[in-house]
Every structure is written in structure tokens, then in C-alpha cells.
Design goal:
Blueprint (H helix, E strand, L loop, with lengths): L8 H14 L15 E6 L10 H19 L3 E3 L3 E2 L4 H10 L3 H18 L10 E2 L3 H16 L3 E11 L4 E3 L4 E2 L2 E2 L6 E11 L5 H6 L9 H11 L1 E11 L9 E5 L10 E4 L4 H6 L3 H16 L8 E9 L6 E7 L10 E4 L5 H10 L7 E2 L19 E2 L10 H15 L2 E7 L4 E2 L1 E2 L9 E4 L3 E4 L27 H4 E3 L6 E4 L3 E2 L8 H4 L13 H7 L4 E5 L5 H15 L12 E4 L2 E3 L2 E2 L10 H8 L1 H10 L7 E2 L2 H21 L1 H4 L18 H24 L2 H25 L5 H18 L4 H12 L20 E8 L2 E9 L4 H10 L1 H4 L10 E5 L3 E5 L1
Parallel strand pairs: 1-2, 1-26, 3-4, 12-14, 26-27, 28-30, 31-34
Antiparallel strand pairs: 5-6, 5-9, 7-8, 9-19, 10-11, 10-13, 10-18, 12-15, 13-14, 16-17, 20-25, 21-22, 21-24, 23-24, 28-29, 31-32, 33-34
Helix pairs in contact: 1-23, 3-4, 16-17, 17-18, 18-23, 20-21, 20-22, 21-22, 22-23
The protein binds one RNA strand through helix 7, strand 11, strand 15, helix 10 and strand 30.
Length: about 850
RNA sequence: GCGAGAGUGGCGAAACUGGUAUACGCACUGGACUUAGAAUCCAGCGGGCUUGCCCAUGGGGGUUCGAGUCCCCCCUUUCGCACCA
């Protein structure tokens, strides 16, 4: 093999990438014999925007490091990639450039594939998944039909989030701060017919199983838990004055039944069906319409406002009549859309009551001893002792909750209920570039699903984009007009497409299918072999959306008998953002660093090394151009040391050399020492790669190893010492080990170095064994503290006794300044080989 | 407002169960090599002064022989949720 004297990354990287591709080095195989444990390493697949950015590079560098490490450790590794290729940008680009989304998407996928390959990630490219491919979304349509059959997909009219700029509806998860998650436009509310997935049917399981996801960051689990938002309480009927039967009552939901005696008014959502019934006066009707209108135009919080409907309800516990208000802060789609207001013990009710001069009755007092200083001021939101509540007086809040609920149930006016904040997942999108929903509307039969055998329903290509108003599908007669699968009569196709989060809810299952000619979405055997994903890596921005949907989807497919799996992702690593000058990289801030340019200048290994070295993966990473140069400098040094300076010496050494018995005694002490340091680093690396993944510390340890090696060799050369065979063998082992440790981070140059040194491919090598050279650290440094303060460090024989350490300490001038005689020592604490603490 | 995390040199960061704080790298300074520079190599690099000590891990208390690490209070900051009754 020809050896270059200096580091030519272009040559090395293109050579390695060529070999990897040609030999299909990273093709994943189900290990049928079962001799190898499996490892599924997954990174969140990208949207094909056209260019990868630093966030992608970081995400994939992390995943690649893990995948390569696990291969070295003998795992059968699945490390796939794909493209989440449906979505709005393609459509917007099509409108702007008067092209077709599929062409735009295809060329973006091509150029991003080149970029990913240029970075040398160890993907099994034969398993690529492209979600806009009918061969992929065909199965999604099948799942949809099966969900429809099982009541897990349904259509209903409801108030949904509408983004005018994206011209489509959005799911609740996709609204952030009243704004669209994609474009930041203000969300308005529209009442529309929409398709939903019944994710709330799985709310309890999605919540419960979070406890088992021990490999997830607490932060993400908490976010999901809060998003699901389970709360238990009581729903009670309040009769409306003047009507006798409960049918005419108003049902409210409360989590604080213990405060029911303090309920002084009922507040209902302006969208509550009773609101229109109760509000008869024309002026009040106008007021109601105004409040409804305001709630529709913006999700933003307005000032609390409302008005008296003119009707009264009867508090079933006090029998007092209390006014019914319409209030803009009451949500229609949570609980029952109406509440009992207890201004004494609820902040919101208090604010409203103050504004409209409503009665405030205290029914809870702080219990003495319950809080440090009982704060008597209202509203008092904590638990306490019940007052003003008839027979329930004196109970604690907890007891009262129970007894009042039980009493309401006994009376038949209430029942204990559990509510979730989670809403069903609205999946309809009024856009073209997405997976078509496989149903038609027949004049005779109504909504009719397509036959499974008619799938895929292919998204038509002959589209003209005007950029105006509705989805172009709505105007495409050749698409819309069809025959009813049931009666054969005229039918119109559904023109909504699915939320692109549906595709990303199961792509990781599709990767397991190698032979895509087979007419299945995936095979049960493959799923049970590869799933769950052992390590998932991606951005925290998907903590609720994608990660919740995917968990839901897996549970649905499990219940449709596709496989037996409860949770898809065993371990989750959420990497931090890549920032520059303290801000997220963005075109508008002008702080974008282009991976392509860096690769051109320094090569892929350098970019990857910097990104993994500069910060631990979960933290934000501050971009630093001179830091990149530092990474480049290190790789040059690595190359010069191993290849330019010492390859000739070590390449012909037999790595099968067996150390004879007793040869340990002949080993040079310096060699023993660096090999011992190496063993510490091997151990530490294995520990880090077991889940914490702080690559930065592994890399810095490797830098130290290389520095120590160089120092040692410089010393040898200076002293013109002759290395014996055991020394040479161990030094080669040392170099090979450093190469292997660094391989997951800088795979190209390490592959090259390994092959030059050994004449074989590093992919055939395995993780280094620790070699016991019988290295004994003869001396160790013991820190000596006097009264807890560091005073000196003394060198002592390893494993010395406490007494001899004390003797040695007292020999030190520095120590003797504080302790003249042994007799003045009151106490000593001795941590073997580490520290001696003397109290005087 | 509620919930979770973070705060260590000029900068990115190390320090696993309390045990020599600042490893590794960047920047900076000096030196070597050079006609000069680049590159490379060597040395220095938390602060203070009386050169051996004092002060330093956001601030203040506490526990301990010993605290970046554990406990309490406060400040700053990032993220998530925000009328969910």
C-alpha cells in the first residue's frame, strides 16, 4: 500500500467511501444463528430540503459513532436512513418555481444523499425509505383503512386550528404559543370536517408506559406526561332554575369537589350548546357572537370577559340559586365545557368574580401545621380544612373530595371521571403534497373506503400550481371524479391528504424490510428481531409531536396484529442545537455554517471530530471556526505520528506475537505505563458508549494517549534505547487500540491508518482487549490535607500502610510547618493511594 | 404563574458513588526554526500579593476531617406548558 507522507483527506475519504460502498460494508443482516446480539441505531430522518445543515451533521455524527462502536463490539447493527419527503416546502417551491413537487423532492434527495455519503456515515443504503414513494405510502393507506374499520380513524366537524399562511389545518401538538409550528403565523379557529386518529383511546397506555421508558430523558417523559394531562375529578349536574328534570341541567367538571359549597356561579364556554339556548335577549346575543368571534380569530389569551345569561343554576349541595355566566376563558373541548366557579379557591374564578362583582364564599381554611405560615388571603388554592360546608365541615380537602364525590354519585347527580388534556390527532391537511386519504364520497352510499386491493391510491402528477387558495387536488377533475367501490355509481374522492407526521410514525418499522419487492409493509419476524430501536437520536423539538405519534402508531399496529411490541424506542438521546454567536443558525441571522464548505476545506473527519469534541451531545454546541482548525490539527498529528513517523517501524510486527511467560519482566517501564493508561481509556470508553455518550471525554483521552505516545517515543529516540520484541508488540497494540477507539469518530483516517499498519480492514477488527502487562505503579501521589486544607503531595509506595504514609507526610517540610510532632495529631483519615487528612 | 434543567479560567469544556478543581482543546504570550511569514515544535497561561501563602466552581448559609458534587434560601439564565377548572 502506497503511503502518503502528509494527510490528504480528499484522497483518503474518497477511497474509503468507495470501498464501503463497493463492499457493502454496512449492510445489515438478520443474524439468524443468533450468535451476535442485535443493535438498532436510528437517527431521525431528514426532510429533503435540498441541503443538510449542521444540526443534521451533528445528529448523524452521533448516531454513526454509536453504530460503528457497536459493530466493533460485535453487534449485528441496523443503521438506516431515509427521507421524510412529503410536506409543504416542496409545494411552496413548486408554486414559486412553477415546477412539480415530486421533481423538486427527487433532486433534493439526490443532492442530500451525496452529502450524507460524502460525510461517510455508515448507513445501509439498501434499506432507504422515501415516504413520498407510493411503495411506502401504500401501506399507510392500508393502515388507515384498517384503523377506519376499527374506529381508530373517523371524520367529524369540529373547531380546528387553521394556519392561513400554510393554508391548512393543524393538530393541537403543532400549534406553539398560538402560532403555527412551521411558519409562525397566528392560528385561527375554523369549524371544518376533519379526519382524526383516535389517539385519546390510548391516552392511559401512552401515559402509563412512559414509566417504563427508563432510557428516555426525564425531560421528554415529563413533557409527554404533561401533554397527555390526566386529571381525575367529578362531573356534576347543576339544575337550571325553572326546569325540573336533570336533562335540562348543566353538567360541569371539577377536580376540586371539596370546594363545591363555595361554587357561587356557573361559567360556560361561549361555544357551549346551552349558551345559545339560554341567551335570548338580542343585545346579549350580539355579545355572545362577539366573544365567539374573538375566540376564533386568535388562540391568544384575551382579558377574561363574559356576561350573565339571565338564567340561574341550583348548586345541588347548597340549594342556592347561582347565576350562569358565559365566560371566554372556559374551554369547550375540555371536560364538559362548563365549570362551577369557586372564586375563593381558584385564581381564574376569583379574577372573574372580582371583575363582575360576584359572590365569594370561602370553604377552605389553611390547616395549622399544613403550611409554614398559613396565608389566609384569597384566593386560597391549596388543600386545607373544610368550612361553610354543612355536614362536611372539619374534613380535610382529601376526605371531602372523596365524601362529596361519593354523595353526588349516591344522589345520581354526578360521577367520578378522568379527563385528559390530550385531544384526538387531527390528520387532515388541505394540501397536495401528502399521502392521499383512501376514501370516496358517494351520492348514494355516503363515505366509502377504497378496497384494500385498489391501493395504492396514487397522488396524481398532472397538477398545475397557482398558489391560490385550496389544494390543487380540489380542482383536478380526473382525480376527484371516480366510481363508488360499493355501488359503482358516481363518487368524489377525498381531497385532504394526511399529516406528514403519519409517515414518520412508522418509517423505522419499514427499515427492517430488506426485500422491498415483497408485498408487505414489514415482516413480523424482522420486527421482532430488530425492534425496539436500541438507540434513537434526534432533536428535542420532537419530544411531544413525533415521539408521541410514533408511540401511538406502534400500539395501534400491535392491536391490528402486525407484531407484538409496546414501545418502539428503548433509549432516546436528544441532542442539543448547533448555535453560533449564541443563536440558532438561520439565514435571517446570517450565522449559517455550510457543511459542504467545511468538508472541502478540512474533510469529513475533521467536521465530525469537531462536532463531537466541542460539547457533550445533549448540550447546545457553540460553533467555533478555530476549534475546527484544532480538530484538523489533531488529525494531522494523528496521521503524522502513526503513518508518517512510525508506520515503517510497526507495520511488519506480527500482531499475533505471543508474550512468553516471564516476558512481562522485560517490558520497558515506559511501555508498561502507556499501555496501562490505554487500559484505563478502553474501560472509560466502554462505559461512556454504554449510554452516556460523552464522546468529548473519549476524544480528549485519546488526545492524551497520542501525546503520551509521542513523548515516550521521543524519549526512546533520544536515549537510543533498543526496543525488544515485547515492547514493539505492545506499542503496535497501543497504536492499533488508539486507532480503533477513534474510529467511530474519524472513521476514514482510522481505516487508512489501520490498513497501513496491519494490511487488513479495520471493519474486521474488534474492540481492543485490555492487556495486563503486570504494570505496577510503584509510587503513587498522596494528597495530604491539614484540617481539611490541601498542604502537600507526597510520593509513596503503592498500597502503603496508613502509618507509613503519616511518617512520610511528617517528613515533608510543608507538613511539618503545621504538624511538628506526631503527638499533636488528633485524628487522621486515610483513603488508600489517594489522600491523607490530618486533624490537629 | 407552574414544571424541568443549567451557572466552573478570556472561550468550548473535564472532574463516575463527596477526596490533589480547571484534564483535553481553542485563544493569548514568549522562544526555536525561517530573509520574512505560514506551518510545526518547545515553554507559559484562574486571580492576588510579601514566592509562600491567601482567594477562587452565580451569591449567602449549613452538613462534613474534606463540598463544583449533598441540604436550605436567593440571583441569573435556558427550555417546556400556560386560562385544561
Amino acid at each position: 500500500m502506497e503511503i502518503d507522507k502528509s494527510y490528504d483527506f480528499n484522497k483518503i475519504e474518497s477511497k474509503r467511501q468507495f470501498l464501503w460502498k463497493n463492499k457493502k460494508t454496512f449492510g445489515a443482516q438478520n443474524d439468524i444463528s443468533g450468535s451476535k446480539p442485535k443493535f438498532y441505531c436510528l437517527e431521525m430522518f431528514p426532510y429533503p430540503s435540498g441541503k443538510i445543515h449542521m444540526g443534521h451533521v451533528r445528529n448523524y455524527a452521533i448516531g454513526d459513532a454509536i453504530a460503528r462502536f457497536k459493530r466493533l463490539k460485535g453487534y449485528s447493527v441496523l443503521h438506516p436512513i431515509g427521507f421524510d419527503s412529503f410536506g409543504l416546502p416542496a409545494e411552496n417551491a413548486a408554486i414559486k418555481n412553477k415546477t412539480n413537487p415530486s421533481g423538486w423532492t427527487k433532486s433534493n434527495i439526490d443532492s442530500m444523499t451525496l452529502q450524507l455519503k460524502r460525510l461517510g456515515f455508515s448507513y445501509d443504503w439498501d434499506r432507504i425509505v422515501i415516504t413520498s414513494d407510493p411503495a411506502y405510502y401504500k401501506w399507510e393507506q392500508l393502515f388507515f383503512l384498517q384503523m377506519l374499520k376499527n374506529g381508530l380513524a373517523y371524520k367529524k366537524a369540529s373547531n380546528v386550528n387553521w394556519c392561513e399562511s400554510c393554508h391548512t389545518t393543524l393538530a393541537n401538538e403543532q400549534v406553539e404559543d398560538g402560532k403555527c409550528w412551521r411558519c409562525g403565523n397566528n392560528i385561527t379557529i375554523k369549524n371544518m370536517e376533519q379526519w382524526f386518529f383516535n389517539i385519546t383511546a390510548y391516552a392511559e397506555e401512552l401515559l402509563k408506559d412512559l414509566d417504563d421508558l427508563k432510557g428516555w430523558p426525564d425531560k421528554v417523559r415529563t413533557m409527554q406526561k404533561n401533554w397527555i394531562g390526566k386529571s381525575s375529578g367529578l362531573s356534576v349536574f347543576f339544575k337550571i332554575e325553572g326546569s325540573e328534570d336533570n336533562e335540562d341541567g348543566i353538567e360541569i367538571f371539577t377536580t376540586r369537589p371539596d370546594t363545591i359549597f363555595g361554587a357561587t356561579f356557573v361559567a360556560m364556554s361561549p361555544f357551549h350548546p346551552l349558551a345559545k339556548e339560554l341567551v335570548k335577549e338580542p343585545e346579549k346575543r350580539i355579545e355572545l357572537e362577539r366573544i365567539i368571534h374573538n375566540s376564533l380569530v386568535s388562540k391568544d389569551i384575551a382579558e377574561k370577559e363574559g356576561f350573565f345569561t339571565g338564567s340561574y343554576a341550583i348548586n345541588p349541595f347548597t340549594d342556592k340559586k347561582i347565576p350562569i355566566y358565559v365566560a371566554n376563558f372556559v374551554l369547550m373541548d375540555y371536560g364538559t365545557g362548563a365549570i362551577m366557579s369557586v372564586p375563593a379557591h381558584d385564581e381564574r374564578d376569583y379574577e372573574f368574580a372580582k371583575k363582575y362583582n360576584l359572590e365569594i364564599i370561602r370553604v377552605i381554611r389553611p390547616k395549622s401545621g399544613f403550611e409554614k405560615e398559613p396565608d389566609d388571603s384569597l384566593p386560597y388554592m391549596l388543600q386545607g380544612a373544610i368550612v361553610n360546608s354543612g355536614e362536611f365541615n372539619g374534613l380535610s380537602s382529601e376526605e371531602a373530595k372523596e365524601k362529596i364525590s361519593a354523595y353526588a354519585e349516591k344522589l345520581g347527580i354526578g360521577k367520578k371521571v378522568i379527563n385528559y388534556r390530550l385531544r384526538d390527532w387531527g390528520i387532515s391537511r388541505q394540501r397536495y403534497w401528502g399521502c392521499p386519504i383512501p376514501v370516496v364520497y358517494c351520492e348514494k352510499c355516503g363515505m366509502v373506503p377504497l378496497n384494500e386491493s385498489d391501493l395504492p391510491l396514487i397522488l396524481p402528477d398532472d397538477i398545475t400550481f397557482t398558489g391560490e387558495g385550496a389544494s390543487p387536488l380540489e380542482k383536478l377533475e380526473s382525480f376527484i371524479n371516480t366510481k363508488c367501490p360499493k355501488c359503482g355509481g358516481y363518487a368524489r374522492r377525498e381531497t385532504d391528504t394526511m399529516d406528514t407526521f403519519v409517515e414518520s410514525s412508522w418509517y423505522f418499522l419499514r427499515y427492517t424490510l430488506l426485500n422491498r419487492i415483497e408485498q408487505v409493509p414489514f415482516k413480523k419476524d424482522d420486527i421482532s428481531y430488530w425492534l425496539p430501536v436500541d438507540q434513537y437520536v434526534g432533536g428535542v423539538e420532537h419530544a411531544v409531536m413525533h415521539l408521541l405519534y410514533a408511540r401511538f402508531f406502534v400500539k395501534v399496529l400491535r392491536d391490528l396484529n402486525y407484531f407484538d411490541l409496546d414501545e418502539p424506542f428503548e433509549n432516546l438521546l436528544t441532542q442539543g442545537m448547533v448555535v453560533k454567536n449564541g443563536a440558532k443558525m438561520s439565514k435571517s441571522k446570517g450565522n449559517v455554517v455550510d457543511p459542504d464548505e467545511l468538508i472541502k476545506k478540512f474533510g469529513a473527519d475533521t467536521v465530525r471530530l469537531f462536532i463531537l469534541f466541542a460539547a457533550p451531545p445533549e448540550k447546545d454546541l457553540e460553533w467555533n471556526d478555530s476549534g475546527v482548525e484544532g480538530a484538523f490539527r489533531f488529525i494531522n498529528k494523528f496521521y503524522k505520528t502513526i503513518i508518517t513517523a512510525y508506520a515503517d517501524i510497526f507495520k511488519n510486527i506480527d500482531s499475533d506475537f505471543a508474550m512468553e511467560d516471564g516476558s512481562a519482566g522485560n517490558i520497558n517501564q515506559g511501555v508498561k505505563k502507556i499501555v496501562y493508561q490505554l487500559s484505563l481509556v478502553i474501560e472509560k470508553t466502554e462505559a461512556e458508549m454504554n449510554g452516556r455518550y460523552h464522546f468529548n471525554t473519549i476524544i480528549s483521552s485519546s488526545m492524551e494517549l497520542l501525546n503520551n505516545f509521542n513523548d515516550y517515543m521521543a524519549d526512546e529516540i533520544q536515549k537510543e534505547r533498543v526496543l525488544n520484541p515485547a515492547d514493539r508488540y505492545l506499542l503496535k497494540y497501543f497504536l492499533n487500540s488508539v486507532i480503533i477507539i477513534l474510529y467511530p469518530f474519524i472513521p476514514h483516517v482510522c481505516s487508512e491508518a489501520y490498513e497501513i499498519l496491519n494490511g487488513s480492514a479495520i471493519e474486521k477488527a474488534s474492540w481492543p482487549e485490555i492487556k495486563d502487562t503486570g504494570y505496577i505503579q510503584e509510587k503513587c501521589n498522596i494528597a495530604v490535607q491539614i484540617n481539611g486544607k490541601m498542604r502537600d503531595v507526597v510520593a509513596i509506595d503503592l498500597n502503603a500502610s496508613e502509618d507509613s504514609v503519616i511518617e512520610a507526610a511528617l517528613d515533608s517540610n510543608k507538613i511539618r510547618k503545621y504538624v511538628a510532632h506526631k503527638s499533636s495529631i488528633k485524628k487522621t483519615i486515610y483513603i488508600k493511594n489517594k489522600l491523607l487528612s490530618i486533624i490537629v
